[in-house]
Amino acid sequence: MPEGHTLHRLAHDLGDAFAGRVVRVSSPQGRFATEAALLDGAVLEGAQAWGKHLFLDLGADRFVHVHLGLYGTFVLGATAVDDAVPAPVGQVRLRLVAARDDGGAAWADLRGATACELVTGAGVRAVADRLGPDPLRDDADPDRGWARIGRSRAPLAALLMDQTVLAGVGNVYRAEVLFRHRLDPYRPGESLRRRRYDELWADLVDLMHDGVRTGRIDTVRPEHTPEAMGREPRVDDHGGEVYVYRRDGLPCLVCGSPVRRAELAQRNLFWCGRCQRRHVPRGVQ
DNA sequence: CCGGAATGAAGAT
DNA sequence: TCTTCCTTCCGGA
Which of A13, A149, A209, A264 is most buried when burial is the number of CB atoms within 10 A of its CB? Predict the structure, then answer.
């Protein structure tokens, strides 16, 4: 379930479980076996995320760069004292195991990642340098995002997904933040005013921090929760309560008109054609 | 700019 | 068995 909040949450949880500890590194599946052997027994210095990229610092200028792609997962677990770490199930590209203070062990299994590679600090910087500001990072500079959006004719829905514009926003957050601000997804970036961009950015900072905390994407305002509206909670594998993401054909929670779906840059885009009224360019009736 | 490929697993048919 | 997915990169028009 990989948007930026997932990776920041992982960085946090992996840090909690492994930082400062000797880590057993392996690749049960074998595709990271050579690198794993080099890293086995190192102390994990820390973990951090930039957008949808995760970096594990194993000291000596060695970092594991992970990108989950569309469907990668990094699952963490712990065993009680004297219990064995579970045998790997399926395609486990990378496994980390470390002792816990309580006598048990912490473990983490990476599957399905599009990137799992050993890089240097220079490699980390190279990735970070080509990313736009990340709403989940305290050191983010939103001006850099505005510099791209405010002068682009590309649709907002495309710009928000472009990791060189803003880092960490994925298909769910883009659809939801556009809905929350009643913005037409096809509206060109350059038609936005700075004030609106600032509101968008601030909202992403809030929503994505919520996502890190809860591990799911909830974007509905208090008046649109299932309890407030007396409706059934959303049931699907993603968990969160949302306005438009994968709700095509269902009534908009605000106006009741059917949520729409279209392809944009090979991805499904969802929006409400009524709430997110078509943007009419200046000078056109 | 477009299609296709590359990562795994779950859910639908 | 097929389809889908919270992504990105690459190669050929």
Answer: A149
* A241 catalytic residue (yes or no): no
Tell me the pLDDT tens digit for each residue of A217-228.
999 999 999 999
Kindly report which amino acid residue has its CA closest to the C1' atom of nucleotide B1. A265
Query: How much is the average pLDDT of A14-32?
Result: 96
Q: Is A84 exposed, middle or buried (0-12, 13-18, 19+ CB in 10 A)?
A: exposed
| pLDDT tens digit sequence for A128-160 | 999 999 999 999 999 999 999 999 999 999 999
Structure tokens at A91: 């395609």
The distance (Å) linking the CA of A39 with the C1' of C11 is 34
Q: Tell me, in Å, how far CA of A237 is from C1' of B10?
A: 10
Mean per-residue pLDDT for A232-240?
71
Strand C at less than 7 A from CB of A71:
yes
Q: What are phi and psi of A54, to 5 degrees?
A: -120, 135
- When pLDDT is averaged across residues A277-285 and rounded to a whole number, the result is 65
- A2: Cβ under 7 Å from strand C? yes
> CA A14 to CA A109: how far, in whole Å?
11
- The CATH class of A4-129 is alpha beta
Evaluate if the CB of A89 falls below 7 Å from strand B.
yes
* Residue ranges per structural domain of chain A: 4-129, 142-272
**Residue A196 belongs to what H/E stretch?**
helix A194-214
Which one of 1.10.8.50, 1.25.40.10, 1.25.10.10, 2.40.30.10 gives the CATH number of domain A142-272? 1.10.8.50
